[in-house]
Amino acid sequence: MIEGRFPGRDGVELAYREVGQGRPLVLIHGYFSTARVNWVAYGHAAELAGRGHRVIMPDLRAHGESAKPHDPAAYPPDVLADDGFALLEHLGLVDYDLGGYSLGARTVVRMLVRGATPGRAIVAGTGVEGIVAARRRGEHFRRILTELGTFERGSAEWKAERFLRAVGGDPVALLRLLDTFVDTSPEELARITTPVLVLVGDGDDDQGTADQLAAALPVAEYRTIPGDHMSAGAGQDLGRAIGEYLG
């Protein structure tokens, strides 16, 4: 496993991990998570490296080994897409594939809208509502981050807080990151010409609109895997489904 650093376009220091050799595949993790948790811990990176991919996994700003500034100026709108482009530029990637889970998937869409040209893309763990109403979706997490320690045991909010604490997340930095979320219009989705796999757990709350997301994209394939939002990301089917799609 290679571990590296690169500067965001604003100079903020960001981290990434890399495993395998072959065609580059950039995979972006979800909110509260990390590259290690989302892609390495459950074997997805190893699965894809074994299929002949050079798997590159950044830690998003405010996550993992990347910087977690508290200054609001470090969180302009769409900065995660900016950071994604900074990684492509740092590694000199021109011919590559691009994928993400949950917030990572929304970041992939933002990069596609803004001109990224991967051969293929994977948008996993989100439906169309998470894309076109990203800012509204962020309010759920804003409530969690501003009311930590108050949620009923076993509730969705309690589970999210438990995950946050397990990965050592920084609540202040993560709260700032919510201000960067940008909605993507249906018109923008209709202009994406990259082939896209829309992949979601069959028990994920977003499953109901994931097929609508696939329908909104000009060249898309829709597929479900077993699990809800959390368990689908942890199950072995995620890496296999991505690998099968990429061939």
Provide an overview of this structure.
α3 crosses α4. Helix content is 42%, strand content 19%. It contains twelve helices and eight strands. An eight-stranded mixed sheet has the order 1-2-4-3-5-6-7-8, with helices on both faces.
The amount of beta strand, in percent, is: 15-25%
Distance N to C terminus: 23 Å
In round numbers, the mean pLDDT is 96
Uncertain runs are none
Number of strands: 8
Gross geometry: globular
Q: Radius of gyration in whole Å, from Cα?
A: 16 Å
Chain-wise SSE layout:
Layout: E1 2-7, E2 13-19, E3 23-28, H1 35-40, H2 44-50, E4 53-59, H3 79-91, E5 97-101, H4 103-113, E6 121-124, H5 128-132, H6 134-146, H7 156-166, H8 171-177, H9 186-190, E7 196-201, H10 207-216, E8 220-225, H11 229-234, H12 237-246
